[in-house]
């Protein structure tokens, strides 16, 4: 929308995704609405610096891309990484196998190999590494990538199994070396690793797929006495180490331990979190606590998805309807059932990302970028939804509404942006805003209600009026020097 350049008129561009069918559509006409909302931006008030938005490179996603035509493979990777796509800037991958792998595997396949003479990333060469390299070629701005292990090889663990168990203390140094060797192996393939989470879901996952358990003290001791010093000694002290990497309600006990003193704190660059504790609650108190405990450290959402659902194929309406369930709908304890109602997938993503940004989270990373119509492949049959669903047999691609929701943030709020203050007169309209490094400002609005709303947006002495549809998400871009 371009307004007259009179002294007090803001010039803005507005992009909308809606239940009525807009898909990151630039809109210029705004029907009047009876409900009026005033939003005042306060750019002088700044909060966290953004590290990025994106998704995960998994063996499952990479395997599916290899089964598609080159045209469709390129379409998907460009949609995520190109300048005219979502411009993903922060990504994750897995070290060794995870549930979104085709089978169990480890880079340390030889039992008792304490010095990792036989370390190999051969398992990643066919699918995972080509996907990452192609994305790097497409991305003009580049992106950060961090890696997470689900488990060490069974021979390093007290139960000698892929699932559950703990890392044996005699292999702590071996496991620290594993991270260092991984950096070198990926570097040899032309891929720079930005950092790590120490362990995906250290509480475990109900002993269903790859996992390895740590208490807060065990993880902190491993990082302080083994992983941190090893990376430092090997000239990799700049690699980011994120602790925890599970749900938010557990944040307090983890950050209290991770940042227990200077000796432990110096090796943790931040805290990683997931969203699976609830389909709607983003746990603002826990996020605030984690930030206040370590205000200069990262606080990054490293995984989230609509889980325990088989994705709906070419049915946009489902992604906007409150029919989706998660694991907690079936399996949560009675006292926690209330945290897991049926909830629209679009609402879940938009609500959580805005809620996170308004509570000090600086990065938000989705789970698989691509899954098939079953919500896999997943060796444990732990079916999930992804923003892009494919049918490799028919060579067809479906960009779900979730893809567009992610792009509302990743495309317009760039790394090193600063979240800024604002005043919002409507507590049913979610709003967040950030000033980008180029001086532009991106504001994201989410209207979950059935009511269209007229928005009066102001900054300093300038303002603009427009409307947001019912059940819609908008990104408003204010160019620099407006």
UniProtKB/TrEMBL annotation:
Belongs to the glycosyl hydrolase 30 family. It comes from the Bacteria. Keywords: Glycosidase, Hydrolase, Signal. InterPro entries: GH, GH30_C, Glyco_hydro_30, Glyco_hydro_30_TIM-barrel, Glyco_hydro_b. Residues 416-476 form the Glycosyl hydrolase family 30 beta sandwich domain. Gene3D superfamilies: Glycosidases (3.20.20.80), Golgi alpha-mannosidase II (2.60.40.1180). This is Glycosyl hydrolase family 30. The keyword Hydrolase applies. One of its GO terms (molecular function) is hydrolase activity. It holds the Pfam family Glyco_hydro_30. It comes from Flavivirga spongiicola. Residues 50-413 form the Glycosyl hydrolase family 30 TIM-barrel domain.
């Amino acid at each position: 929308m371009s307004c007259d350049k009179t002294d007090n008129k803001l010039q803005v561009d507005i992009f909308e995704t809606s239940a009525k069918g807009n898909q990151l559509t630039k809109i210029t006409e705004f029907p009047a609405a009876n409900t009026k909302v005033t939003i005042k931006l306060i750019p002088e008030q700044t909060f966290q610096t953004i590290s990025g938005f994106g998704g995960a490179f998994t063996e499952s996603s990479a395997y599916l891309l290899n089964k598609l035509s080159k045209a469709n493979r390129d379409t998907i990777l460009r949609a995520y990484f190109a300048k005219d796509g979502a411009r993903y800037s922060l990504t994750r991958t897995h070290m060794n196998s995870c549930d979104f792998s085709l089978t169990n595997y480890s880079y340390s396949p030889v039992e008792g190999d304490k010095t990792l003479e036989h370390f190999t990333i051969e398992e990643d060469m066919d699918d995972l590494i080509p996907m990452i390299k192609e994305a790097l070629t497409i991305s003009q701005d580049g992106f950060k990538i961090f890696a997470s292990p689900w488990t060490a090889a069974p021979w390093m663990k007290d139960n000698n199994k892929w699932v559950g168990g703990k890392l044996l203390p005699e292999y702590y140094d071996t496991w620290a070396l594993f991270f260092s060797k991984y950096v070198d192996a990926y570097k040899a393939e032309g891929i720079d690793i930005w950092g790590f989470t120490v362990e995906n879901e250290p509480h475990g996952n109900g002993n269903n797929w790859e996992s390895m358990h740590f208490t807060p003290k065990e993880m902190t001791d491993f990082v302080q006495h083994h992983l941190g010093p090893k990376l430092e000694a090997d000239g990799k002290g700049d690699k980011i180490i994120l602790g925890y990497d599970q749900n938010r309600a557990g944040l307090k006990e983890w950050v209290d331990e991770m940042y227990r003193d200077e000796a432990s704190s110096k090796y943790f660059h931040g805290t990683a979190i997931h969203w699976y504790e609830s389909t709607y609650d983003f746990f603002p108190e826990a996020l605030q606590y984690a930030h206040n405990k370590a205000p200069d450290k990262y606080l990054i959402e490293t995984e989230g998805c609509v889980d325990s659902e088989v994705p709906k194929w070419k049915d946009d309406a489902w992604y906007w309807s409150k029919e989706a369930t998660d694991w907690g709908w079936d399996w949560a304890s009675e006292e926690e059932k209330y945290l897991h109602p049926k909830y629209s997938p679009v609402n879940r993503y938009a609500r959580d990302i805005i809620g996170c940004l308004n509570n000090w989270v600086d990065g938000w990373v989705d789970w698989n970028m691509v899954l098939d119509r079953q919500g896999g492949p997943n060796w444990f049959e732990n079916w999930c939804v992804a923003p892009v669903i494919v049918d490799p047999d028919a060579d067809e691609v479906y960009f779900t509404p979730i893809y567009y929701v992610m792009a509302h943030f990743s495309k317009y709020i760039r790394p090193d942006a600063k979240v800024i203050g604002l005043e919002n007169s409507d507590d049913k309209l979610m709003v967040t805003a950030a000033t980008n490094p180029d001086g532009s400002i991106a504001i994201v609005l989410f209207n979950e209600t059935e009511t269209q709303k007229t928005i009066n947006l102001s900054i300093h002495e300038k303002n603009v009026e427009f409307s947001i549809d019912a059940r819609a998400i908008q990104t408003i871009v204010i160019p620099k020097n407006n």
